[in-house]
Amino acid sequence: MPSSADPLPGPGLAAFVAAVETGTVHGAAEALELTQSAATKRIQTLERRAGVTLFDRHPGGLRLTEAGRALYPEARQALVALRHAEEALASHRSGAGRQLRIAASQTIGEVLLPGWLMRFRPTDETIRPLVDVVNSPAVLDALREHRAEIGFVEGLDPLDEFEHHTLHRDEIRAVVTPDHPWARRRSVRPAALLDHGYIARERGSGVRAVTAAALERVGVRLTPQLEMASSFGAKHALDRTTFALLSTLVVAEELEAGTLRALPVDGVDLTRELRAVRLRRGARSPAAKAFWRWLAEQIEPA
Questions:
Q1: Which domains, and CATH codes, for the chain?
Q2: Burial of 187 (0-12, 13-18, 19+ CB in 10 A)
Q3: In angstroms, what CA-CA distances link 262 with 214, 215, 228, 248?
Q4: What pLDDT is recorded for position 156?
């Protein structure tokens, strides 16, 4: 009699999940490219190993028992994990172990990182960067969960568990359209920000965290009229009654073309540091080591 500590067989789990999702053993057999008797045998072996009945059989097909309903989500998740493990080994065998997994906050990921990667790649053209652009807290989560090896952040999140290297010093300004009442001014007072509609980045963005903290220090708390998940969306939502607080990096082309104006906020320090980050401890791929070293040697903070 099988022990309760024995692992459930992978082929049986695959046949079970396929039967649930197709509704019949015949459908499971077709999905797995088996004979119907082979699919049946795998499910019966799984039931014997588990010591429970997983399906009630009836003329219209299969109906999950209570035990089957409990097993299904866990079995499906186990198969996904197994597939990921197989893909990781296949990638390693095929040479894709040279992948460089990066998570970058939006300003860095959209404006600075593409150029850095294009400069870095000729140093080793076998490296394949895979970049996920998210907000700064999500970058740190990706590093903690080992979904990325190097991250780029621009907010105020604590970095105690990370090594970090400053790559750029950025300035945030009040951005308006050319027909806005502030367009011809050289700067804007903090209190004046309360008089116009504020188009903000989403909660969790580095820009929003830095500006909120700096303005609170001078007694100004802004309530957004509209929240956008990207700087691109925020700058294109502007009209003559609204403003956004954005990095000068993301509006550089519009400032040069004259389609937007950017004003400093009087008496408020809206500069921030854009950083590369990685976990202090843990295994690092050769690709991640090479890129980190290149960043430290080649990128001087502007």
A1: 10-93 (1.10.10.10), 96-167+274-298 (3.40.190.10), 169-273 (3.40.190.290)
A2: middle
A3: 18, 17, 19, 8
A4: 85
Q: Which of 69-73, 175-179, 212-216 has the lowest mean pLDDT?
A: 69-73
Q: What is the pLDDT of residue 3?
A: 46
201-221 core/surface letters (b: 16 or more CB in 10 A; e: else): bbebbbbbbbbbebbeeeebe
Contact between 143 and 278 (Cβ < 8 Å)? yes
Angstrom CA distances, 48 to 4, 21, 24, 67, 229, stand at: 11, 21, 19, 13, 51
DSSP bridge partners of 198: 243
Lowest average pLDDT, out of 46-60, 92-106, 165-179, goes to 92-106
Task: Please give the DSSP secondary-structure letter assigned to residue 188.
Answer: B
- Tokens describing residue 210: 């830095």
Q: What backbone phi and psi angles, to 5 degrees, belong to 109?
A: -65, -35
In Å, how far are 77, 82, 273 from 46, measured between CA atoms?
17, 17, 56
Nearest CA among 228, 216, 226 for reference residue 268 = 216
Query: Of the candidates 103, 107, 101, which has an alpha carbon nearest to the alpha carbon of residue 138?
Result: 103
Burial of 8 (0-12, 13-18, 19+ CB in 10 A): middle
pLDDT tens digits, residue range 91-137?
A: 665 554 578 999 999 899 999 999 999 999 888 888 899 999 988 99
Q: Contact at 8 Å (CB) between 45 and 12?
A: yes
CA–CA separation, 116 vs 187, rounded Å?
A: 32
